[in-house]
Amino acid sequence: xxxxxxxxxxxxxxAALHTIPEDLDLATGPEHRLRRRRPRVFAHRGASGLFPEHxxxxxxxxxxxxxxxxxxxxxxxxxxxxICLHDPTVxxxxxxxxxxxxxxxxxxxxxxxxxxxxPRLPAHYGSTSQQLMTLQDTLxxxxxxxxxxxxxxxxKHPSPYGNRLEERALQVLxxxxxxxxxxxxxxxDQGQYRVYVSFMSFYPGxxxxxxxxxSTEALCALFTTVTESHVTKRxxxxxxxxxxxxxxxxxxxxxxxxxESMVWNRQAGLAGPSVEYSLExxxxxxxxxxxxxxxxxxxxxSVSDAQALVELGVQELTTNYPARILRTVAA
Length: 331
What we know:
The chain is of the alpha/beta class and 331 residues long. The chain has 14 helices and ten strands. The chain has an eight-stranded parallel beta barrel, surrounded by seven helices. Strand 5 and strand 6 (193-201) form a beta hairpin. Helix 9 (228-235) packs across helix 10 (241-264) and helix 13 crosses helix 14 (322-330). The radius of gyration is 20 Å and the shape is globular. The model is unreliable at 1-34 (pLDDT under 50).
């Protein structure tokens, strides 16, 4: 293999990348496909294509559909609870308004976090007041799943509480018997199953902080191709946004490079690129697969994308529709 040292993606010569597929082409032929294990399927914010994201209903449905794991996002509430929500505010996914960081758990529990998408939930998923989930609530579901299952925890930054977010998550995990060395939690009535925990972030600083406690294999660097629309979304609420645009774009692209570097330098055992990035950078994806890096690609909702990623050797897919993607990768 021509790549003998782990280097940031931007510094790897194109020629080096193109020398990789010689043996890799053989490894992705029909015989190899028969031997290859199917990709693991993670439910993105639960079965969020069917039920409100991060709701108890979405998590329960994903487990029932056979998802190999749940993917969750965490913010810290004002009173220090790890809350499962994607956005920094409750505006989009509840009947309330304001920042998660400014609200207590009791205030968050009082919100309706499901009617924006599913006004009437089936009764077996719990009442409306039971739908907002904390990390503790999620772990209680997973340890009772009756099988091995994964939990992919994404830390949402920037957080006004800094790394207190990670500290609180680790505290909760430890209270469930989490083993930092194996990053597993015993589950089942007799501890016969395991919850496999991994940690993700778009912010390399979060992963570096976690690396003091968490094994490299359980760290996942998230990244995507930075587009003009991504930059616009980031700056739309800022004064003088036009003047700030070049600076913000440079910072965002620099963060992506830092995340790529963590993968190349084996500081993160999992690479978490988007679907768009993966299909645009097939040589890099093949290079990571060839050297044993696990790939967890998001958000894979179409059958054609799932099939293309399986052909590239991607080992984990994150999706809003776990049943659909499970059927696809099992075919």
